[in-house]
Amino acid sequence: MNDLLPAQAARYRRLVECVSAVLARYGYSELRTPVLERTELFVRTIGEVTDIVEKEMYTFRDELNGESLTLRPEGTAACVRAAIEHNLLYGTPQRLWYEGPMFRHERPQKGRYRQFHQVGCEAIGFAGPDIDAEQIVLCARLWRELGLTDISLELNSLGDAATRAAHRGRLVAYLEQHRDLLDEDALRRLHTNPLRILDTKNPAMQQMVAGAPKLVDMLDAESAAHFDGLRARLADAGVAFTLNPRLVRGLDYYNRTVFEWVTTRLGAQGTICAGGRYDGLVEQLGGRAAPACGFAMGLERILALIEGSTALREAPLPAAYVVHQGDAAARFAVEVAEGLRDRGHAVVVHGGGGKFAAQMKRADASGARYALIVGESELAERKVSLKPLRIPGEQQLLAPDAVAALLDEQH
Ligand code: ATP
Ligand code: MG
To answer: Ligand 1 pocket test: which of 55, 57, 116, 196 has the largest number of ligand atoms within 8 Å of its C-beta?
Structure first.
């Protein structure tokens, strides 16, 4: 779990601003849920035989009432819970997004943290492949706006429950033939959740798993039509993809479309965004059945990808830094600064006293465009001396209104 120091926090904030601006352009509204939920919510939705539920959740008993609570490992379940609880789904479909910390007790490594951050997006109450396509196209736009070029899309369809049941029998038979290659996790899951084995990160199993029976070859007619519809829309939008028949995702609630955006630039942790359809989840959580599709992106991984790029605009530097000497001047300095802030300008007032020369060094280091100087002579006239710090120019004595007018002009 990491601290974000000011420069990193600023980048994080700008990334979220950029993502939320794109989401707003597609009509998605923000929803915020608590970081804690009842444990049962995650166990039921993500699935008992999954990495997350088996070994990654921060779960504890609330000593005050004996409830079992869990720090959220992902956002979809909570988002759906909230939508049902507050009757958001009556009659109207919802396009929602959320942002915030998620918690998983994983082995920390580059691109894998125990507290990480996601922006997630959920469209609830939409059945057609148009919404799957909308979300993928939205992601593609975001990558463009962030200046990310070497990201590719992997796509698969998991079909419906009957498809998966039929596939399961053939998959188990295949895996049993290769029992000697299965690792401990895979052996344990062979009869409880064999699909998860396809999602293995174990390099020794990759080749065997690549030869397993493919869900996408066995799709039911409706799922096949849905998948065709999605592919046609992606073609319309000019979004390229690779069909990855092994893509199954690490959570149980997915059906039909699943997708991942991957890069080769981050080593083993190359998935920056992942999602898919979860048509049964709303009903499973007690709501009126509503088909849905969503995705979540890992913000740390995206930040690592855009490190050094200019895609995230620099945060605006202060317009002015006010230096002052003496008690009365300090109070006048605050009055001037407040007036400028009223008009929307960022103004830093020097704190902590010190000689003018030392204060001017701070002014320079702040990155401000101007130093505003309030000494005895300025105070006597209720004016300030304005000294350009970034551009050549003479120092001038100005009334506060004149300073405001000058900064307004540059805004
Ligand atoms: P992975 O296959 O990398 O374990 P996952 O399938 O567990 O990912 P999801 O639950 O789909 O991941 O989460 C969506 C995205 O959130 C991932 O693609 C990744 O970018 C990010 N993510 C997931 N777990 C972590 C983590 N521990 N640290 C940082 N980012 C993470
Ligand atoms: Mg994982």
So the answer is: 116
Residue closest by Cα to atom 21 of ligand 1:
298
> Is the beta carbon of 369 within 6 A of some atom in ligand 1?
no
- Rounded to the nearest angstrom, the distance between the alpha carbon of 159 and the centre of ligand 2 is 22
pLDDT tens-place string over residues 82-114: 999 999 998 889 999 999 999 999 999 999 999
Which of 206, 271, 278, 299 is the best mutation target for the ligand 1 pocket, counting ligand atoms within 8 Å of the beta carbon and taking the most? 271
User: One fold for both 6-159+219-305 and 320-404?
Assistant: no
| H, E, C per residue of the chain | CCCCCHHHHHHHHHHHHHHHHHHHHCCCEECCCCCEEEHHHHHHHHCCCCHHHHHHCCEEECCCCCCEEEECCCCHHHHHHHHHHCCCCCCCCEEEEEEEEEECCCCCECCECCEEEEEEEEEECCCCHHHHHHHHHHHHHHHHHCCCCCCEEEEEECCCHHHHHHHHHHHHHHHHHCHHHCCHHHHHHCCCCHHHHHHCCCHHHHHHHHCCCCHHHCCCHHHHHHHHHHHHHHHHHCCCCEECCCCCCCCCCCEEEEEEEECCCCCCCCEEEEEEECCCHHHHCCCCCCCEEEEEEEHHHHHHHCCCCCCCCCCCCCCEEEEECCHHHHHHHHHHHHHHHHCCCCEEECCCCCCHHHHHHHHHHCCCCEEEEECHHHHHHCCEEEEECCCCCCCEEECHHHHHHHHHHHC
At residue 311, the pLDDT reads 75
Please state which CATH number belongs to domain 6-159+219-305: 3.30.930.10
**214 Cβ below 6 A of ligand 1:** no
Question: pLDDT tens, 198-221?
Answer: 988 899 999 999 999 999 999 999
Convert the pLDDT of each residue in 139-179 to its tens digit.
999 999 999 989 999 999 999 999 999 999 999 999 999 99
Model pLDDT, residue 213: 95
The architecture in CATH of the region 320-404 reads 3-Layer(aba) Sandwich (3.40)
Query: Does residue 54 register a pLDDT over 80?
Result: yes
For the chain, give every domain's residue range: 6-159+219-305, 320-404
pLDDT of residue 309: 75
Mean pLDDT of 372-390: 97
Is the C-beta atom of 246 inside 6 A of ligand 1?
no
Which carries the bigger pLDDT value, residue 41 or residue 312?
A: 41
pLDDT in the model for residue 19: 97
